[in-house]
Amino acid sequence: MSSGILYFNDIDAYDLGFDVQQSWRGILGSSPRQVSLQGIAGRAGGIASGYFFPRDARIESIPGFFRGATAATLQASWRTVQQELQSGVVRIRTAHDANLEWEANWLADNLANRDGAAYDLALTSPVLTFQLPCPFGRDTRGPFTVGFDSTARDIPGGTAPCRARLEIFDATNPTITYLNSASNVIATLGLTVTHSVGLQSTIVDLDTREVTYINSGTPTNGYAQITSGDFFNISALDHGNYRNSQWPKLKISSGYGVLTYDKFYV
Amino acid sequence: MTLPVALPLAATNRASPFLFEWDCRTFLRTGSLDAVTGQVATFTRASKGCSIDANGNPFQVAHSQPRIFYGSDGEPSLWLSRAGTNLCLQSENFGTTWSAIGTPTRSAAANNIGNAVLDLIGDDSGAAAEGYSQVITFTGDGVKAVPLFVAYEPNLGLSVGVRVRDTTAGANRLALTISFTGSSAEALSVSMTTGTNLLDHIAPKAIRGVDRNGVAGWWLWLQTTSVTAANTNQVEVYPASTASLTTTFTGDVYAGGVQAENAEIPAGYIPTTTGTVTRSADFLSFPALWKPQDLTIYIDHTELGTLRATGGKLLQLGDDDSGTSDCAIISAPSAGDIQATYNNATVGTLTSDVTSGDVALLDRHETRVVVTSTTMYVGRSINAATEAVDASPAGAMSHPLAYAEQVLTFTPGGTFTGSHGIRRVRIAPGVRTLTEMRTGRW
User: What is the pTM of this model?
Assistant: First the structure.
């Protein structure tokens, strides 16, 4: 039997031996937004802080029970859960939305360094604690791609900023323009480059701020191609209206581009 | 804080249990074609090529840049296909090279789907079928692919006639009526009189994009009956007519991206202007350095034509067609069937196949091949249905799988003739079930 409430790496936590306490408030709705100024190495000044989502890590604690009627079976359940959670990143998913998952590092349970009655108590009422490097849930159906050209194209997103990468083709000194859902310009990014049609492209990673120039399949650093404007973050939360499916947009003045992105939700 | 590098979806909590693991989502997330298990990809294509974004729109990506194909189920795949040549000139411009039939109206570059440009062409005569034609010089008799884009908006025409006409023989090799009903292009339907509509026109099978105006546009993959290459064959597009050339209709339609290929299945849109244009084949390979051992090979792909012809190949372990030693997954003994082959100088050629072939384009195929020292067999699941497994597997091999060249290639054999989108590929040690190959747990 499965509980269908919480999944670790696509396995029902109940089947692993961990039953979630009903008091757990759930993983949604705990992503406080912060504002910070971000600098870019090698470039003067800072970028528009409102568009660079802080994405500070957060801690999530999940109370529950190990399944078992005896100390031995409780301990066996604990071992099974430990085995699944240790050694790296855990993907957490809940029954609320099967298409969202969080990447998490398991930090601890509350069994360590306890003896006797304290250990027994912890074994019967464990709390699994995780650090989520990104506080937002990622849409597992992604990544998505949207092509765009001189006509602004909608970028359907989630309720948090996207993690996105632009690839630009067949362009001559293009300016990429990011607009809100009302078609007001939010940010521009200008490149000085002339692509030979069909042979060259430039990739702008909006998450890592890396710029890569690719010539017939050979990549080189393309950072110097950026000569005006700044990086930006694509956010339906800030620049669209998620409830009404009104999305921020992208366009490019020369050539065309393809945006590859993951949707995230607060 | 900076986010960590995105991790593979399959097994983020531990090292991959596979000898080889690649999946398209990881590629899209990281931008690297390298395998999750670390093998470095070699990918080339000596020309630009057509990619299909998540909205169904075509875009041309540059030389040696991977192409993506989003299936009708929303799953991305890496699109690998044969070389192709568009024989139709001025594929996005009915104003040049094309011959007017009557006095059609035309508004150049009035719309686009992705970066395929569409003209708005019209028939304003209630007494004649007007449109455009172009003679195509096919090579070799046989069935030919003739895809094109159309987009519709309310208040335009209600039906379009498309033909490939053999004017020498006075016969149609392709004839169809595209009809729009209601107020939305969602209501597009295709009625074939001659030839085949390769992508069932009923959504979600069809490839449906979004035109510049936010309205659905359609990419139709059409196939002629056998043409006689020595005759004069011309593509004809009638913006307000039918397959039988109804003369009384008037109206407009956005059309363009017309293609004609010496192939039975289209393999991506290739824009042309004054001359024919060839898109080179995609080539993808990885080193395969694990030692000879019992293996399970799993490939999950979107079918785009590879299995439609006998001998179409999905992958090959050991890039050696000489029979020295290689293992491949091909379409055999007939088109649509799946066959695993193992060529070895000692044991000869072993085969195992599942023959209940169903090769509708855009279907998802999961193929699993088990190769051990005593047997080899293949199984296949289509659209996640129950796996069909060869009930009469090949006999003893007397040794674990070995191959002459330590390479895993997806476009093998020198002349790659197929077209498919790979979603994920996994190779596991030992004998694994389909569920185990899907989940990575055993």
Answer: 0.88
